[in-house]
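User: Hey, my collaborator sent me this sequence without any context and asked if I could get a structure. I don't really work with proteins. Can you help?
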Amino acid sequence: MQNRCASVNVETGRSVAQIFPTAMSDSPFRLSPPLKRHNPGLLIISALKLGQALLFFAVGVGAFRLLHKDVGDVLEKLAYHLRFNPESKFINFLLIKSSILDQPLLKRIVAVFFIYAGLDLVEGIGLYLEKTWAEYLTLGITASFLPWEVFEIFRKLTVIRVSLLTVNVLVFLYLFSLVTARAKRIHKARSNRQDG
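Assistant: No problem. I've predicted the 3D structure and written it out in structure-token form, which is a compact way to encode the shape of the chain:
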């Protein structure tokens, strides 16, 4: 903390504030450091990643609960409970496809969803804390999925697929702009240090 006291400059006749350093304990007011404001873009991406982590975790738990059970039987009970027509094409399609889900495949599905949930959790927490490694990690993972998403849109155009691609492209472009701006600032600071 610093004390200010006014004095008069002899040459100009104007009042001049002088600053005298004092100990923090001498001051009646203790100022806390200014709160660091979070980057709003990183907060939004962090919330998106944490939401995805919850979704993947929930799907992983659901798949885990299907282990050692007859999936077709579980789907039939669910369709009955939800009052779906058991003779509908959709229910029959699900029952036919459920026959593919054996125990090894279900275990792989559970593992994949838990891995995705863990990755999204790490990305979300890292972005919330504004860690540079989290920006690079999210940038790399997002970039790796973009070609597959574009391929899926060409295979079948749906609103959901276009929305997912749009969100991921926006996330990629935003993080890319942050990373390149930081790299330029670091390069400029290094060149200024070398010149000075």
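In plain terms: The CA atoms of residues 75 and 81 lie 10 Å apart. You can pass these tokens on to your collaborator as they are.
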